[in-house]
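## retry 2 of 3
previous attempt timed out at serialization; input unchanged, resubmitting
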Amino acid sequence: GPPKTMAKLLAVLCLACCLAAGGSSNEGRVGRGGGGGRPGEDSASAAGDMDGFLGGLSREDRLKDPLVQRIKVSREDEEQCSRDMDCDDWCKERSREGCICRCKGFLEDAVYGCKAENMVCQEPPYPFWGGSFNMTAKTFKSKCKKHPIMLVAFTARSCRHCVDFEPAYKWATPQLDELGIPLARVDVDVEKDFSRDMGISTMPAVKVVENCKDKGLYKGYHSPSAFVSYANKLLANTVTTLTSVEEVQDFSIKHNVSVISFFSKADGYEDEEEEFREAAESLRFSNNVYFATVKAKAISSHFEGEKWFKKAPAIVVFRNFDLHDRDLDSVVVTELADMSVQEWISKRTVRLVDEVTGTNFAYYESLRIPMLLLFVNKTADNSAVLKDFKAVARFYQGKVSFGYLDGRLHATRKIALGLTDDLLPAMAFNTLTGALYPFPSWKKLDQRNIKEHVEGFLTGRLQPSQASATDEEVKAAQQQAEKDGAVGLIEITRKNFNQICMDEFFDVMVLFYSASAQVTRDFWPYWKKTVERFRALKIDTLKIGRYDLSRNQLPDSLELDSLPSIVMFPARDKSPPHKMFHGKAKVRPIMLWAQEVASIKFEFPNDTPHLDDEQRKAYLVQIKERDERVGAERAKKKAERIAKLKEEEDNQKAAGSQSPQTDKLTGHDEL
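## retry succeeded, writing output
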């Protein structure tokens, strides 16, 4: 970028980078994915959820909230953890179910990222804790007429992952209300048809509604500061007029994407300026693209001298995604011959090679060209493969879009594209037709081979992989499952998916997995036991199947974020968003969840449906012995924590009594 603006860039982007990390670990869980994560916030709002900015409420006010007061964990009860399952005993002690491991300030400060030592066990907030009002299909018209702009959050009581974002919704609401952009809440479990009509396929999801029209999905962070920043963007002028060199410099580094036009009033480019404003209006609802214009000829001349552009009238796009990847593109508007201003700007609002996230995936889809995805291990050094990947991207710009993803975080998408083993890095095409074009795992991922793969795809020499398992593969898998003891387990393929899963006479519970993944092999004994227990209990209204994504493309109606994933297709509720299991990957939680979400209700003989009679007797004895042992250990640890806190208080009091006395007359310390 221009050297004069680099100092300011460092200050802004360092803050953004430092606050972008976070999240909690949930090993041993199934289906912890979902929307509403933190996939890349505008740098101006990435300053975090600082005290005093959370919905305009002071921390004292937030602590007075009845729910916060009820479930806030006292210091002596704080129990460190790293995963939700670490909190099972802590939760049981309080006669609660479904406790979570989160940051200390999760509930009252909406803190989503923290150091491991600041993770503690706590109760989750209530579903629908935050928001301005609840909304249904019947009340939609009256609400949207009353509120010209609304943010509408789609969640569900059955979506356990959604509750993670309740603090964000709660503390953003007062400030959003003050700005006149309320946060409406929709329960997808109740408003299934309305949610489907609004295009909701995953949860949580936030839609923008203006004058009763759906303006698309909000793609930024689900955090108080991000919501408030976005609301201010919607209320501001679509195009800001900049009147000084300093204003231009500040604007160029302030946002993820800053688009600046240089049109002199006297040059007579009214049509081009109007086209620029239309482009800005088309991207008004994006969360991280901001527009400005410069009309003063002296200011334009200054930045022409800085080599921002060749000559006016010009448009400059700054991409400020991170400290090490800030760049700009510029164009002389009158020299745009083969595309419109809007198209030129749209194609430059993401990097040439970018990490694909919830923020930019819709953009890639809108290009309507094939996408080549590189899956990497983000904890490893990927500089060499990314350098080769970017070199090929420059050569095929406009014909193929290029992006990379965290291969561990997006294992499902990786497998759905035909990459069925655990090797990283890996690469495959994401096509409009759904055909599979995986890069061979035995080939080296270097510039020559990547280019050969792309060229083969574009020329038609590269042949796609199969979309569904063959009949022979299905038969062999069925026989192996029965041999393993999973009698009655149904092998589901892309071919028979609708026939089995959309059968309205049965609830259908399906395990989506990859046979070649180690995590699936580890989970298989639990799934086999689940099948055995439902069969032993003679619950014949529930069909149980498995879907191997290493042999079949992912069904069109389904979106998964992790493997293995368990999905229920209830008899009377077959449409998306589908019901996903987000609990502990053990037999009993899976069985209880199936009982809860199935349309055709059934009962278990007792509270341990995963055990037969003999196992139950032994289990009750073991539980009693374990509870006594663990209870004593936890009581000892709690006593130690209380003693340590008391010691800290005594030390503070002692230090206070030894502090220097102050001369009340002069204000000087007496030494």
